[in-house]
Description:
By secondary structure, this protein is of the alpha+beta class.
Amino acid sequence: MRKxxxxxxxxxxxxxxxxxxxxxxFPIVGGVGVASNKASETVDSMSxxxxxxxxxxxxxxxxxxxxxxxxxxDQYRIPTASSQINDAMKWALxxxxxxxxYDHHGVDWKGTIRAxxxxxxxxxxxxxxxxxxxxxxxxxxxVIYRGDEAGQRKAQEQSVARKLKEARVAIQLETKMDKDQIxxxxxxxxxxxxxxxxxxxxAQTYFNTSSDKLTVPQAALLAGMVNNPPFYDPWSHxxxxxxxxxxxxxxxxxxxxxxxxxxxxxxTEPLGVVPDGPAKPAANCTGAGPENGxxxxxxxxxxxxxxxxxxxxxxxxxxxxxxxxQNANHQAKMSAEQQVSKTQKNVANTLSLVRPGxxxxxxxxxxxxxxxxxxxxxxxxxYALPSDVSNVTGAGSSYKIFTTMAALEQHKTGIYxxxxxxxxxxxxxxxxxxxxxxxxxxxxxxxxCLQNYGEGVYGPSxxxxxxxxxSPNTGFVIxxxxxxxxxxxxxxxxxxxxxxMASNAANGGPVDPNNANVAYKMSQQxxxxxxxxxxxxxxxxxLGVSPTNGLELANVAATIMSGGVWCPPTPIGxxxxxxxxxxxxxxxxxxxxxxEGLANSMAVGMSKDDTEGTSAAAASAAGWNRPMIxxxxxxxxxxxxxxxxxxxxxxxxxMVFRPDYPVGGLIDGxxxxxSATQGNSNGNMFGGKTPARTWFGAMTQILNGxxxxxxxxxxxxxxH
Length: 720
């Protein structure tokens, strides 16, 4: 009986050996040849992928000076050259996984036939794979089929067909790569559990060292893990990991790469891994920390909007030098937090700063009182407060900038011209629902009625420059009538409110054309413009009642200070790929949004806010003495407030608003004593309070030591 079994095994071994050899050779006749051609094409394709699909690497984001602030990655991997991997690591791996690595040519035929025979008789096909074959499999799993579960299963299925294909690719690789290249490549692609890939990252995260400084027991631990990383995870399964490490040490002794007495000593040592799991950096913008996280988030959003995919961003190994100025970002954060506590419920205070220019508008700071992070109990958030359409209540009278510039462009008025500012006004051009005391102008429609803040605060008329500083509501609704809502809303878009005007008027989100609510189904430009929800448009636009992007509002000021040149607010200083070569980022081109004379005249028109207008008290308290432009804004019931301002070197917008429950007001009790009202009751917040104090507080520090520059002169064509 035993002789019969032995004979069958021998016959089976011979048969399988023939199959394996045939699988390696090119059949030349009939259908077998066709099948082989297809198999060969598959192998060639796989070999090409191994050569042309690079492994995922970590993308590094830096500040403008090149100091790293965050890492983005899908797999944490530190590329490591052969010279950076010590011999202990190489011999530990070879000893436990493929002791004949330096003798074979990619396939250990004896082991492969034994494994195939085991499979043919119902046994286990695992084992027999050389390091070259394991490299092929790991590359398929961790690189080619990363994120593709079906592909990963196929790459490690226990079948003769898969092993044949793997063997053919391994043989091809050994004709193109030497042994050291294969071993180094393997050690750079293999996983060491918990999304730690490659020996460079493993040495750093497991032992807080580099791969060239790994000790023998450390190398043995890592080499033992590659067989089954989760199973031998030293934090989750320290006993298994220890047993496996000791096995590797024994194999090194058997392979004559370690003395028995040294192995015995190393077995007594603890695992020595860092406590509480691998010490790897955060994989996203939370790693930028509470202060820089908002800027990192904008960098990511900006690149994804401008053609880069998230997969490429998180695997491409780029170095992204941003435009963020560390000092400016820090001062902006400190000022925002000084005015509003980071843990204050339902109050966000943001500051966005942009450097004007005729070829670029570089974002240098994005800050909020809240910290960037995932712990809501500590006031943290990952919502892009300073750079998204996050203030759904609106920017208030800051939007009067757009009405003014539309009227100036049409020469309906001039910055020194007198405009009418009656205490109350009933517009028959803009209509609304019925209000007490408001006249009816048509069937089911009533005039749009409004009044100025306070009784007797404003005279019946004043210069446009004075109106910009003191902000009477009626005068700007009259200017809207003269300029037309189409021109006003288009001016907002041209000057910089691109995403804002393209978003919906309800919550600043994407437009949903199928929504029954018109505030969701229309862009803000269409909603407020003529033909949106009213024939002539909605006059409330100039009072800033719609969702607003604070960074875009800052860029409006930058456009004015750039002679009317709009550029996208960019956070990108430069990008290089994994090889250090520059990468061109697709960015929207700058454009002359308005004539330079108009922009310069508007700057002069906005130049009195800090001396005679609504921000004068905050400017005086800060000791401000520079020429500047400014415009405050406050919404109904003081639910939000803004301050848009600029000097020739820097433009910005500060906003305070209710991010969680927008209905209701804000109470300003002074720096550090700002809160949200209960329910929908009124507040006492104004743009000249918290927002202005935030802007002046940051800018006095940022501009310290910089020259005092004058504003550009006005153009006589827009003066009267």
